[in-house]
Structures are given as C-alpha cells and as structure tokens.
Amino acid sequence: MDTAPAVFAGTVFALFGAGLLLWTVTRITRRVPVTEGGGPTATVLSVLFGAVSLLVGVWSLLRI
Q: Is the pTM of this model over 0.70?
C-alpha cells in the first residue's frame, strides 16, 4: 500500500522531465526560442530541470 504514492510521484517526475527535455530539444533544433523573451540562461535551466526531474523519477521508480 505504501508504494502507490512512490509510483505516482516517480511517474509524474519522469513524464514531466521527459516532456520538458523533449520540448527543449524540439525548440532548439528548430532554432526557435525556448521561452518568450528568455535568453540562453532559460535554455540551460530548462535542460537542467528536465534532466533532474527525469533522474528523480527514474530513481523513485527503481527504489520500489
């Protein structure tokens, strides 16, 4: 019974991280800004938060 919240949280983190990385890579390859009015710092932060979220999600799912 205690694993249900861990599965939910791991799935949410993994999907968010994968989606954010996919969005960022798609925007970069099309040479379109990742954020409206954002500079290169926003792109770096987007990649960083996407990777961290994906890693936390995978780590959470592997701990079950």
A: yes
**CB neighbours of residue 13 within 10 Å:** 20
Give the chain as a 3 state SS string.
Answer: CCHHHHHHHHHHHHHHHHHHHHHHHHHHHCCCCCCCCCCHHHHHHHHHHHHHHHHHHHHHHHCC
Walk along the chain (64 residues) and give the pLDDT tens digit of each residue.
578 888 999 999 999 999 999 999 999 999 998 888 888 899 999 999 999 999 999 999 998 8
Dihedral angle over CA of 35, 36, 39, 45, nearest 10: -20
d(CA 5, CA 12): 10
